[in-house]
Specification:
Blueprint lengths: L1 E5 L3 H12 L3 E5 L3 H11 L2 E2 L3 H7 L2 E4 L3 H11 L7 E4 L19 H8 L5 E4 L6 H6 L1 E2 L2 E2 L1 E6 L2 H13 L3 E6 L4 H18 L20
Bound molecules: NADP nicotinamide-adenine-dinucleotide phosphate (NAP).
Length: 216
């Protein structure tokens, strides 16, 4: 698959690492072109020249920017994202990382969805997997779980295929409004890093019965 990742910070690196492990063609875009080029050279990815051309060529567009920037990008790039599978990975944290800026009756994913064309297929994913664990591809020898929420089953299946090719477990948790719980779980995971001093090295894991078809 052609995977476009917008944003080349910690999560851009982590998701690109898994995408390349899954033998995808990975294109990186960052406002800071030199930063995108440096990561692309290091990992063996490509760099997007024009964002809209890169979006047109992508099977999946991963928006790996802070929530406020993701809202802004959704507004700015909206029309070019028509018909595309768009992955939102954001945790809409407040400045002190003690809470979310979204109210309880919505989520970052739903707010971003409102700004996209109706034909765009938004999938929430990766918001509960910390960047260093994506780079490593596991925690303590255990496969990482990536929880997916979205309203389009075919889009979720495509993202699940991408996730699994990178050596991770994909767990479809339901419709896009399940992102409210995923973002709360993301926040809980972040607060635990400070309480447990675990350096963003933990992972949320759904322990499955051994005969489950999705167990790895
Ligand atoms: N870090 C984690 O472990 C983790 C885990 C799960 C989810 N997340 C979520 O993943 C997202 C990215 O987190 P991160 O840790 O990768 O952050 P990061 O290391 O700070 O990287 C953010 C990237 O977004 C770019 N960016 C910032 N503002 C932008 C704008 N207005 N337009 C375009 N690009 C912009 C930054 O570019 P510049 O550096 O040039 O500003 C940078 O490349 C966040 O929504 C976060 O909540 C993070």
């Amino acid at each position: 698959m052609n995977i476009l990742i917008i944003g080349t910070g910690n999560m851009g690196r982590g998701i690109a690492t898994r995408a390349l492990a899954g033998k995808n063609t990975v294109t990186l875009y960052d406002e800071d072109g030199a930063k995108a080029q440096a990561l692309a050279t290091e990992l063996g990815a490509r760099v997007a020249g024009d964002t809209r051309d890169a979006i047109a060529a992508a099977d999946i567009v991963v928006v790996a920017t802070p929530y406020a920037a993701s809202l802004e990008l959704a507004k700015r790039l909206g029309s070019s994202l028509g018909g595309k599978i768009v992955v939102d990975i954001s945790n809409p944290l407040n400045d002190s990382y003690t809470g979310l800026v979204t109210s309880g009756d919505t989520s970052a994913a739903e707010e971003i969805r409102k700004l996209l064309p109706a034909s765009a297929k938004l999938v929430k994913a990766f918001n509960t997997t910390f960047a260093p664990t994506l780079v490593a591809g596991q925690v303590a020898g255990q496969t990482l779980d990536v929880f997916l929420a979205g309203d389009d089953d075919a889009a979720k299946a495509k993202v699940a295929e991408f996730v699994k090719a990178g050596g991770l477990n994909a767990i479809d948790v339901g419709a896009l409004d399940r992102a409210r719980q995923l973002e709360a779980l993301g926040l809980l995971g972040i607060t635990l890093q400070f309480r447990l001093n675990t350096g963003f090295g933990t992972a949320w894991k759904l322990v499955l019965p051994s005969d489950s078809p999705i167990a790895r």
